[in-house]
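User: C-alpha cells in, sequence out, please.
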C-alpha cells in the first residue's frame, strides 16, 4: 500500500524515499458510540442506535538522507508543506490492486521535530496525528446514476443502457442499482425539467423526496444536496426552495444503503411524475464511502 498526503495548495508528499513510514494507526474501523436507554425495572438496556465517531490517524516516519544539509532542507520542505494547519488535508491511499481511497482530515498534533544525537546526522524521526471528523474513506471518483427521457420511445434510459418504458409523459419507473460502498452515501440529486409532481423514492430504505404540487419547468434545474450538515434544496433561478418538498419527505435521511441494509448493495429507485419529455433528466451523484481502508 502507498500512502500520500495532500494539502490545500495541492502539494503532495508521498511516503517513499526519503521518507520511511512506521506502523500507522487508524486505517481500520473507526470508533463508534452506542446510544442506549434503561427503563424502570429493565435488566440491561435497550440499544437506540450506533454512530461513528471521528477517526485519529497516527503516522510515525523517518527521514533518511545522504547528507546533513539535505536532511535539514527536507525537514524545512516538510514543515512548509504542513504549514496550512487550519485547512483540510487529504490522505491518499493506493492499494496493491490500484484502488484509490481518500480521507479528509485536519492536522492535530505531534510533529514537534524531536532531536536525538544517537540518530546520527542523516536521520530524523517524527510522528504526526490527523483527525478525520468524517471518519469514512471514500472513492475520489464520483459515481453518477443518470436517468433521461428518450424522445423516440418515451422511455427512461439509464447510464448502463437499460430501457424501461413509462408511456407518454407520465413517469412511473423502478430500477435497481448496486451501491458498492460499505457505508451509506448521501448523494447530490440534480433534476432538469420539465417534470411535475416528481417523487423520488428509495424503495429499499422506504425514504422519499416528494415534490407533489410543485412543477419544474423546461430547462429549470433543482438540486438536492443531501450531504450531512448541508441538506439543501435549491432552484436554478428561485434560490432556496425547501418548501417545495412535502412535509413527510425524508430530506434529512434519504441515502443509498450498503450491504447488509440493502442486500448486496442493491438499491431500488422509483421515479414518479408527470409532464416529462425528452429533455427531462435526473442525476444521482455520490462518492462511495467505506468504513475501513480495505473494505
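Assistant: Sequence out:
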Amino acid at each position: 500500500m502507498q500512502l500520500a498526503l495532500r494539502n490545500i495548495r495541492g502539494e503532495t508528499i508521498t511516503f517513499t524515499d526519503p521518507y520511511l513510514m512506521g506502523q500507522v494507526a487508524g486505517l481500520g474501523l473507526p470508533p463508534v458510540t452506542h446510544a442506549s436507554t434503561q427503563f424502570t425495572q429493565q435488566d440491561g438496556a435497550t440499544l437506540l442506535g450506533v454512530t461513528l465517531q471521528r477517526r485519529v490517524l497516527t503516522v510515525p516516519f523517518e527521514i533518511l538522507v545522504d547528507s546533513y544539509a539535505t536532511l535539514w532542507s527536507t525537514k524545512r520542505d516538510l514543515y512548509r508543506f504542513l504549514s496550512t494547519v487550519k485547512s483540510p488535508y487529504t490522505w491518499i491511499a493506493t492499494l496493491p490492486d490500484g484502488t484509490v481511497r481518500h480521507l479528509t482530515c485536519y492536522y492535530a498534533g505531534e510533529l514537534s521535530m524531536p532531536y536525538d544525537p544517537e540518530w546520527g546526522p542523516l536521520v530524523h524521526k517524527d510522528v504526526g496525528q490527523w483527525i478525520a471528523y468524517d471518519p469514512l474513506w471514500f472513492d475520489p471518483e464520483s459515481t453518477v446514476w443518470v436517468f433521461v427521457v428518450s424522445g423516440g420511445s418515451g422511455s427512461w434510459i439509464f447510464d448502463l443502457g437499460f430501457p424501461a418504458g413509462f408511456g407518454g409523459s407520465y413517469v412511473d419507473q423502478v430500477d435497481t442499482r448496486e451501491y458498492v460502498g460499505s457505508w451509506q452515501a448521501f448523494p447530490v440529486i440534480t433534476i432538469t425539467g420539465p417534470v411535475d409532481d416528481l417523487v423520488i423514492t428509495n424503495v429499499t430504505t422506504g425514504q422519499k423526496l416528494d415534490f407533489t404540487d410543485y412543477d419544474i419547468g423546461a430547462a429549470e434545474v433543482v438540486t438536492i444536496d443531501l450531504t450531512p450538515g448541508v441538506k439543501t434544496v435549491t432552484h436554478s433561478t428561485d434560490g432556496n426552495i425547501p418548501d417545495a418538498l412535502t412535509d413527510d419527505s425524508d430530506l434529512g435521511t434519504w441515502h443509498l444503503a450498503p450491504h447488509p441494509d440493502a442486500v448486496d448493495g442493491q438499491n431500488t429507485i422509483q421515479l414518479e411524475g408527470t409532464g416529462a419529455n425528452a429533455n427531462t433528466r435526473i442525476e444521482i451523484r455520490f462518492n462511495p464511502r467505506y468504513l475501513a481502508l480495505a473494505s
